What we know:
Layout: H1 17-20, E1 27-29, H2 33-52, H3 57-79, E2 83-89, E3 92-98, H4 104-109, E4 113-123, E5 127-134, E6 142-147, H5 153-165
Helix pairs in contact: 2-3
Amino acid sequence: MFVKNLTNTQQNKVNVQALTKSSPQLIRIKPSKLLLTIVTMLHMLIVVSFLSSGLSFKWAQLPIVLVCIHLGFYCYQWRLLPNYRLQFLADRWHLLTKQESPDIETLKAKEQIRLSIKACYYWSRFLVVLIVEDEALKSRIQYIPIVFDCCNEDDFRFIKVMSKSMLAS
């Protein structure tokens, strides 16, 4: 990478070559436990607010039961979220989905879906939102949020660098 030197000081060249190479170790991205914790705490706050309100317990039971059912449904949906693997293939970055299932036969029958990363939608210190598209279906674009607790610290830092440098248009 060539940078114009206006101050006549010695500059170190940035090694961009390391980013373009595919590492033999793939980055695994799991569903975020932080989001599950935040949603659980918000549901608990709603239940406590109904219990501490002026409503009698008889009238507060229905909303409390509905909130608990919704929390159970959210936890069930969270468990079904796929794990992703970030991989560099054919001069593009891809997310390979891996559906976790307790049934081994179902897992063997399902093939991995390759999602091509088109761009980075949003980037911050704790969150990266990637725009992906399914290559097999050519369907509409999807937004995949990757929170900092989805992978280890070095892998998340690499995802941030990759999304800001290599996906910039």
